[in-house]
Amino acid sequence: MEQYLELNYREMKDLVRQKLSIHVDIMDLLNKQIEKEAHSSSAYLAMASWCDHNALSNSADFFYEQAAEERDHMMKIFRYINDNGGTAYSPEVGGVNHDFKSLEEIFETALDQEISISKSIHNLVGKCRKVNDYTTEYFLQWFIGEQMEEEQTMRRALELFDLMGTEGLGLKLLDERIPQIRNKNAE
Amino acid sequence: MKVLHQSQFFISYQCDKQRCFFIKFPHKTIQLGFCQLLAFRQQVKEIDLEAHFNGQNTHGMEMLMLCNREHFFVFNTLESIDLKEFLTGTFAMLELNSLLTTSSV
ipTM value of the model? Predict the structure, then answer.
């Protein structure tokens, strides 16, 4: 076998590039992003469950929708990796918190979660630039816009607490206003 | 066939003609497609070396199945450490080759 061995890398085909359109390190980071989106989706489900149990049906619907949206984000990345020759790994989700003190705490947690996802996407874009993975950078542009909208939605919800209070009738009226915070963004 | 990287126990090769990779283990050599190489890398990344030293992995063994369960390997602690270095080195060489190919365009 030794007689066939050559150490001249210049003459070697770039098999990795032939098989994979994205950088290997970026593929790893995208797989980590899949885990984060999956965790986020499960966290929203837990929030929806809490709202359902506390007679806050509009907020529950809002978080059910959020959970579905996060899963859509996850699937978008999942398909992107596989479509470009990489291997996407189905994520394991653990450590989902089901205990909350109030609806306000839930929305604050949701905002923190969205900020964390935004930071993660920004880090990914930064890494793409470092390794010249322009394909993934282009792909991630949609997520940057999406995250901006998600953060705005959660912030708007928290502003409602300042306006209407966190207890009694105020809370009930606030729950009725929740479907509109998303619609306002969609317009 | 060209050598990509060699560690204490393992050697990786790239075969341009068959567009695949080979890995020489101490007792046999196996052929891998790129996806299989990626899957192997992922399995090796998930090896918890700390568990070999803090008593969690009492036997000090790692069992890996490669190429859609075609091959089964058992590695001891020394081989597991070497395997991590080996895969990092192999992918570093592949990246270096990509850079050289890109720069020559």
Answer: 0.82
